[in-house]
Amino acid sequence: MNSSEVHYAFLVIDTHADTPQRFLDEGWDFAAPLGTGMLSLDAAKAGGLDAEFFAIWVEPKYSGEYASRAFELMEAVREQAHRHRERMRLCRTPKEILTARAEGRFAALMGIEGGHAIENSLDNLREFYKLGARYMTLTWSNSNEWADSSGDLDDPTVQHHNGLSKFGREVVREMNRLGMMVDISHVSDKTFLDVMETTAAPVIASHSSCRALTNAPRNLTDDMLRAIAKNNGVVMVNFYSGFLSDAWRKARYAQEPERAAAYAELNARCVAEKRLPFFHEELAIDRRFAALIPPVPLDALIDHFDHIAQVAGIDHVGIGTDFDGISAMPAGLHSAADLPKVTAALMARGYTPEQMQKLLGGNLMRVLNDVQDLAAKWRAKEAATSPR
């Protein structure tokens, strides 16, 4: 089988896209023509992408409205699935993903990005699960009241917890009980260690790359990769150029004064209009400046897949693009339609069809199965021991 045959023969899953912001704030339609964003129904079909986890990400600026904003984003995804029900299906289980693929429909799933969305409430966590969330990224770039993020450890104004708090451990255990995957992308190194001590189920990194190759705090060390392998979890490679190349990161930071001025201009305009800036407006600024930096070669992305496969093993690597949430991807990648190029590049390095089946979606399906099976066993045990 050549790389194209392999790519379209196997289930392809991406665990992270920020497209829900477009649904809610722009009124954007997922059936818009190819070329109008990184991810759409047409781009997914062209690129052989069978299933997507839509990130339910609430920007920290929505203080006091975290849960309500998350519910609105989830409803926006559900509305798209209903509007395009002949082409798209909202899924919650591996079986439903396979059914959607057999029906020729795109499988839409959801994950909460940032534990601040639950507003310190296990009831909110349970409600998100009932509405379809099948993972939660414990933090975004901001620490919350129960878990430290990698994004603000140097900020003395932020209260930190030396990893997970006692309640944070309760959150992890409740996610295990529900059957919701614990996502360690964005968390601090100490939070990661605390999670691995607490969880009874495999974890995921929904959109993280390798710190040994690119020194970004968001990336995972080799020790972390090995720990996730021991846990039988999976690391999904992020496509953002800033997590793939130290040279690109350095060039981006050199733009910081100009970017800050552009953000200030946007914020001033929004104050005059008595509203908060929309994410797509902020991302447009980032993309305008990112376009001035020479693109990272595709091989840089492939290096990160390769590194995880070598350190953790082929059973512990997958795809977590960060579509519609990033300002730049490697050369030749513009949307989900270009995903076959990744398969071709990996197979050019010697990856076999059997290995690609695991990387493209099989590994994530195994973890989701394991997490849900463990939760089902716990619920059965609870039912058997509860008073009648």
Beta-strand residue fraction: 5-15%
Give the CATH architecture. Answer: Alpha-Beta Barrel
CATH topology: TIM Barrel
Instruction: Return Rg in Å.
Output: 20 Å
Number of domains: 1
User: How far do the termini sit from each other?
Assistant: 57 Å
Q: How many β-strands, per DSSP?
A: 9
CATH superfamily: Metal-dependent hydrolases
Measured as a percent range, the helix fraction is 40-55%
The number of helical elements comes to 15
CATH class bucket: Alpha Beta
Structural class: alpha/beta
Tell the overall outline: globular
Report the major sheet: 9 strands, parallel
Low-confidence stretches: none
Order of helices and strands: HEHHEHEHEHEHEHEHEHHHHEHH
What's the overall average pLDDT, rounded? Answer: 97
Molecular structure report:
This protein has 388 residues and is of the alpha/beta class. It has helices at 3-9, 20-26, 41-47, 66-83, 94-102, 122-130, 166-178, 189-198, 222-230, 246-254, 256-272, 279-290, 298-311, 339-348, 353-385, and strands at 13-17, 51-57, 88-90, 106-113, 133-137, 181-183, 203-205, 234-237, 317-319. The chain has one domain (9-242, 296-382): Metal-dependent hydrolases (TIM Barrel, Alpha-Beta Barrel). 47% of the residues lie in helices and 11% in strands. Strand 4, helix 6 (122-130) and strand 5 (133-137) form a beta-alpha-beta unit. It starts with a helix and ends with a helix.
Task: List the SSEs and their pairings.
Elements lengths: L2 H7 L3 E5 L2 H7 L14 H7 L3 E7 L8 H18 L4 E3 L3 H9 L3 E8 L8 H9 L2 E5 L28 H13 L2 E3 L5 H10 L4 E3 L16 H9 L3 E4 L8 H9 L1 H17 L6 H12 L7 H14 L5 E3 L19 H10 L4 H33 L3
Parallel strand pairs: 1-2, 2-4, 3-4, 4-5, 5-6, 6-7, 7-8, 8-9
